[in-house]
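2 proteins. here.
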Amino acid sequence: MSEIAPNIDNKKALDEFFKTISKINTELNKPGIDSKFTVPEHQEKLKEYRLRLKKCVDTDRNKIAADLVNQLEQNEKGFEDGIKAINQEIQEINDTVDFLDILGRTINTIEKIVHVVI
């Protein structure tokens, strides 16, 4: 259980960060924002910053996706280990049941022999 909590906290932090930069990206791409910048140099700077932020957003999306995939892979390993442990426990139970069946048949046979002899 201790491995799950850090993954959840990490995902929350990544989600919050992505929401923040996505909001900034949305604000910079609102219709009509270009008209607020009347100086051509400022318009060029706005375009440059939009492009740089878009690259950051896309890069962060990929990093977040890669991190989440990594977490899923780690969880998959844990599930596989858990399934192996459960299967081992089931096999041990099956072995115990098989032993008890053999023991029961052996005692039945011994009882039959005792009845025949007596």
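next one coming up
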Amino acid sequence: MSMSLSELIEQHDALFYPEDIENEILDDLQFMVHDLDMQVLGFAIANLQDTPIAYKPDMEHWARIHKKILEVDDLSDDEEIIKGRLIAWMQSLYAIVQDVRRGLTS
């Protein structure tokens, strides 16, 4: 059974979001993910409230950020955990966008 959009958002909100990242590259990526997060959640919440949606998240931008995260290497164990959390955050955002798009086309 698939999750509703509300459940996807609730699950997303429960993810641990890394803060105070010492690795400069991961810190920059974290800010990019945070910006994308605000865009995607705004898009999803507008959809839930039946508000007309003039904006749609740029999934090519999502793919570029995701690729950059995957390419970061030579990390300490703690930094690998942060990288994994950023990847989980991105995957959650992707699932939310895909759910909204399915609802818009059905």
